[in-house]
Amino acid sequence: QKNHIPVACKPRYIRVNTLKVDAEFVIQELGKANLTISRDDIVPDILALASGIDLHDHPLVLNGSIFLQGKASSMVAVALSPEPGWKVLDACAAPGNKTAHLAALMRGKGKIIACELNEERFRTLEETIYRSGAPNVDIVHGDFLDINSRDPLFKEVHAILLDPSCSGSGISAQRLDHLLPSYGKGKGADACNSERVKKLAAFQTKALLHALSFPAVERVVYSTCSVYQTENEDVIKSVLPLATSLGFELATPFPEWHHRGLPVFDGGEYSSIPIKQLPSMTLRVLLLKHIQLVFCLPF
Ligand code: SAM
To answer: Can you tell me which residues bind S-adenosyl-L-methionine (predicted)?
Structure first.
């Protein structure tokens, strides 16, 4: 397809951890190794390098100054745009790249509660947060679905990032099978109706409904690295009646981004973002924002 850059030619993205350094510093440091670096024109603080560059052992990675985080993954926290001082819940947090990004956007102010169910991944989350230097993250080892939204600790949560377990069908190694010629047809269509994907979608829906139950929540971003409608538009569509009755409406993060979702519900094509030509994942962001705040919060 015309829009799809072959995986081998895709840039490698890094996210600058602005809790520690700024983009200028990183450009200078990496420039010393004669690497060609460019800023991204949509997501602040991410930089693109030529494909195939391996920075895993680079000191800036090891000391948490930069994160090897793709563009799609970096769009999620920016879509939520938490303000410094807010209380934010990252519902399914490990390995913690988006948690660390939230902390950077909040300039380390306010509170992020990062929840992770899996014990091993919980330890990775701890390491990521330590490496990021984020001073405002509390890590909870447990099931997001078991969190009591009325508990005093959570009743003031302003914003929720929900990036639940998914099929991973948008991750680049697998992606070409699903996207060509269209992910809604052929092989992809069978896979997206598999029992596994249906189970995942049931969990994703439950988790999104739970996110909407937090009494003070104003913004919810739902994201996956799946290309299946079952895990994206269908999940959003099923919660929309309740969300609307609670005063939420779909928002349009990154209006300049042209690769949009399927028009399976009113506004679906504007509020979901399949990111098909990016290196590490295909991801959709659907954002629900409390309707009363549309007029008073810049977004
Ligand atoms: N947001 C993460 C990041 O960008 O680094 C990636 C999250 S990953 C897609 C989903 C995570 O949710 C996994 O680590 C998984 O163990 C965790 N998870 C799955 N079910 C959960 C639940 N019920 N409560 C909390 N975490 C859960």
So the answer is: 92-98, 116, 143, 163
